[in-house]
Specification:
This protein has 159 residues and is α/β, with parallel strands linked by helices. The chain has a domain of 104 residues: Alpha-Beta Barrel (Aconitase, domain 4), CATH 3.20.19.10. Helices cover 35% and strands 13% of the residues. The chain is built from 6 helices and 6 strands. The strands form 2 sheets. A 3-stranded parallel sheet has the order 1-2-3. The protein is elongated and about 70 Å long. The N and C termini lie far apart (53 Å).
Length: 159
């Protein structure tokens, strides 16, 4: 966005064919210098659900996972192929299948990607740390019921 509030027509994401895109394809070490959750939040607010790159900054990648944004690591050659197809094919579409861990377009499946099973579970079910904990609410309640009444439920710290 320009200072006068208009969109910069030279910025690639402002091209009409990329409006509404939910997949961002980038170069290596995406998110470097981004150690706060604001970067994934901004990308999500723009409409992205997945970012594909050859590598990600560790803190950025973990912030993506914590906030439901999927960072997909693919070989640089595959990323280049995706960028070339997106640039040369009108209405180019990608399908990111988290369940099967694949990236495909109308022609073929282009790649598979790795993801930690725990992170995959969280993303597939829309869970954050609190949501994961609440999956065990019955166990927590049962534990609390069996807990000795002699044990303090709160700890008072002397002033």
């Amino acid at each position: 966005m320009r200072p006068d509030g208009t969109l910069n027509p030279d910025f690639v994401l402002n091209e009409p064919r990329y409006q509404g895109a939910s997949v961002l394809i980038s170069g290596r070490n995406f998110g470097s210098g981004s150690s706060r959750e604001h970067a994934p939040w901004a990308l999500q607010q723009y409409g992205f659900r997945t970012i594909i790159a050859p590598s990600f900054a560790d803190i950025f990648r973990n912030n993506c996972y914590q906030n439901g944004l999927l960072p997909v690591v693919l070989p640089e050659k595959t990323v280049r192929e995706l960028l070339d197809r997106a640039a040369s094919e009108p209405n180019y579409r990608l399908t990111i299948d988290l369940e099967n861990q694949t990236v495909a377009d109308a022609r073929d499946t282009l790649a598979s990607f790795d993801i930690d099973p725990g992170v995959k579970h969280r993303l597939l079910h829309g869970l954050d740390d609190i949501g994961l904990t609440l999956q065990h609410a019955d166990d927590i309640t049962a534990f609390e019921r069996q807990r000795s009444p002699l044990l303090p439920h709160t700890i008072e710290v002397p002033a």
